[in-house]
Amino acid sequence: MKFVKLKKSFVQEACKIDKEFEQKEWRGYAIVIELSTEKYLVPLRSNCKHKYCFKNKVSNKYLDYTKSFVLVNEKIIDQIIVLEEIEYLFYQKNIKKISSELSRFNTKRSNISFAVDNELIKKVQSIMRL
After folding, report:
1. Which helix (H) or strand (E) holds 124?
2. C-beta atoms surrounding 101 within 10 Å
3. Quick one: pLDDT at residue 116?
4. How much is the mean pLDDT over the chain?
5. Which tens digit of pLDDT belongs to each residue from 5-56?
6. What φ, ψ does residue 77 adopt, rounded to 5°?
7. Residue 65 in contact with residue 102, Cβ under 8 Å?
8. Residue 15 phi/psi, 5° resolution?
């Protein structure tokens, strides 16, 4: 698992297409291991008020599955970010649980009104000239 920041231009375009897309350009994202041959980007959040997330008990941050999406175009990544070692190790230790929870969430995604629309975000990535 690695952590990244997305390009500002991609975030701006994604927000225009999907109102549920996370609007903070500085937000960090975790690249979770492949699920069904796809890589998912899952945003890091300091607050999460629903059950579709993974809480890091070390840093009190969350991975929010509702705002996750498939990574189709690596060019949307601006830079790799570095977390504190203890926080990073907690995520690494729990990668199987995170992947399993994300996979279960994806089976429910279409029934959750505040979830990001994966197909729309895929389209944004494919048409972006970065």
Report:
1. helix 118-127
2. 18
3. 85
4. 87
5. 999 888 888 888 888 887 777 788 888 767 778 889 999 988 888 999 999 9
6. -80, 125
7. yes
8. -65, -35
